[in-house]
Amino acid sequence: MFHIVQYQPLRLITQNSLSSTCFKLILSRPVALAQIWKSWFSSHSLVGNKNIILMGPPGAGKTTVGRIVGQKLDCPVIDIDDNVLETTWNMSVSEKLQDVGNEQFLEEEGKALLKFSASGSVISLTGSNPMHSAGMQHMKKNGIVVYLDVPTTVIMSRLKSMKVDRIVGQSPGISLKDILQFRKQFYKRWYDIRVLCGGDIAAEVVAEKVLDAVKRYQNSELETFISTRSSRSGRSMEKDSNKYFSDVVTEGLAPDGGLFVPERGLPKFTAGEWQSLIEATYIERAQVILERCIHPADIPASKLAEIIGTAYGENFTCSKIAPVRHLTGNQFLLELFHGPTASFKDFALQMVPHIFAYCIPRSCNYLVLVATSGDTGSAVLDGFSRLHDTDKQRIAVMNFFPEDGVSPIQKSQMIGCQKENAWSVGVKSDFDFCQTAIKQILTNSDYTGFLTVEYGTALAAANSINWARLLPQVVYHASAYLDLVHQDIIPFGSPVDVCIPTGNFGNILAALYAKMMGIPIRKCICASNENNVLTDFIRTGVYDLRGRKLIPTFSPAVDILKSSNLERYLHLIADEDGQLVTQLYNQLENQGHFQLRKDLLEKLQQDLVAGWCSEEDCLAAIHSVYSTTGYILDTHTAVAKVVADRVQDRTCPIIISSTAHYSKFAPAILRALRIAEIKQNPLSQLHLLSSYSPLPPVHWGLLETLKKKGNEDHQVCAADMNMLMSHIETLIQNHFM
Known about the structure:
Blueprint: H1 20-27, H2 30-40, E1 51-55, H3 62-73, E2 77-79, H4 80-89, H5 93-100, H6 102-114, E3 122-124, H7 133-140, E4 143-149, H8 152-161, H9 176-190, E5 193-196, H10 203-218, E6 225-227, H11 232-237, H12 245-251, E7 260-262, H13 271-275, H14 282-293, H15 301-312, E8 324-328, E9 331-335, H16 345-349, H17 352-359, E10 365-371, H18 375-385, H19 389-392, E11 395-402, H20 408-416, E12 422-427, H21 431-442, H22 445-455, E13 457-461, H23 467-486, E14 496-501, H24 506-516, E15 521-528, H25 533-540, E16 542-544, H26 566-573, H27 578-591, E17 593-595, H28 598-607, E18 608-612, H29 615-629, H30 635-647, E19 654-658, H31 666-672, H32 682-690, H33 700-707, E20 715-717, H34 721-736
Parallel strand pairs: 1-3, 1-4, 2-3, 4-5, 9-19, 10-11, 10-13, 11-12, 12-20, 14-15, 14-19, 15-18
Antiparallel strand pairs: 6-7, 8-9, 16-17
């Protein structure tokens, strides 16, 4: 029998990535190493001695696709039904099923798999093979399992045309649709690669997609990241220091002060691939999209599924996770506040801690730093406090927030979310200071080196400067569009606009990324409050902080003047000209302003429209919407609603991102609803709001957090870098030593 060790995706080996012992071992066996490379990149076989194993439901086209793939690779093709089962049993599969019944058939089928062995072949499994655990474990040892993911409605249509009305495992009283849905859990358990297959896609096209997916799987060295400030010449000289997804998650900020972006851009989905997700759940959509953005060498599909299930399985109050609700006319709300801390930050920060824990080396402790303008703080504290106990011992988080620059409930929430590995520090300054301070600390090699040597602790960032924070946000923008299609509001391909309250530019950047990946978004509307530096920039191309002071508003999460993620967008429209980005941000740092070239401004304005909203108009919008619909907008969503009313032309639907629950801003909401001013604690304010039976109801997570006692205290420090570093060192000593 032929035996092969478990296959893992290939990443180019460099001396830097190996211990000296490992590297000497490889150098001592150059002939063997050359043979490995030759086998791997053999012109006649994509995977050398490994098998490509096609898996999927009956009717997915495994046999036909397998033959085409085999022809293209000039390698043997094996159909388990025809070449293994019927040969072994000396009877047809249907006869065997009739002879032994469903349960015994699966066992007999699994036994046949356990006796089967092949190498360098394309193998088409039966639709029921994945239901036998031992058989599939045996098959995975010899190859790469490719899941042909075809929508259930398409499979049912194909089976009907083939006059198949019953499949293995389908008992009396169980519908064909139900058994197909039931089987999905087994397919998802075993695959290494997923290939999306829409309705009328030709087998030849599917075969090409299989080959492309396998090439990607074994060539993770192609999915590298660069800094927004790196020059093209510098990149070509630094190939030995390539950064991959797991690296950028751990490091957060590039060494040169720039932000990490994928060197080859984001993956593109075809219209057919997006349409295959229309019937999918939010978790299924997240899995498919993130698999294409994160290489399995960094996080395998099975682990990614576990992380997504943990993040969104029980922590969100709405089963739809990010539902889309009709507001009025052509306006729809994307409700992003159903997570445990009641803001859109939960979408990333229920996932990122688990991604981080998986990606970091076990040999080092990590302190994650985060700056917040309001919502990020409680979300990051909650997310990292949900890690497994063993991970909490080696990963802690410190949250810096403007002591007097968040709402009372936001502050109570951040203090209440403190746990044994998660702390909050109030800073006597604004968000821009907190964010800039973290960037400076992370790029201070003397200080970070001292912490590593002295305490065995590395620093990392959890703000949206971390690439992993952006990806989950791409998912909900794509999902919102698919929901409108699913609800028959629009046919797929019809455009929508999106309007997003924006301060740090991360959320709107995620919408732009969704557009690049194939979602038909026409315009992204940037909604600012009175801190309208972004609105001015989008309209004029001039980013000017001279003479501007941060204005505290009712929408504190967008009380930001320095928008970090704007740098990623400028790098994109400047055709990855890192030198230009460096020049612009050096000028901003040193002179307080910069101006885009005319051609770049024209590019920007093809994607973006902007407007801003006064405090009075924000409160008036909350009152107006409640009076006409009974629905309460939070202050940030109200800003977006006002701007959408002003700048959108009503020729297509507009999706307004509802980024937080109104419960977090109770005093402003009570004022907007013209309820008598009260001087009560935050919990009393929420109870008062709840007495009005509002839509949506008061957020349960906030109520639970505010009811907790014993977490009222937090540290406060001056706006001084040395003070912040002292707090960091003290925390490290207390938690890790």
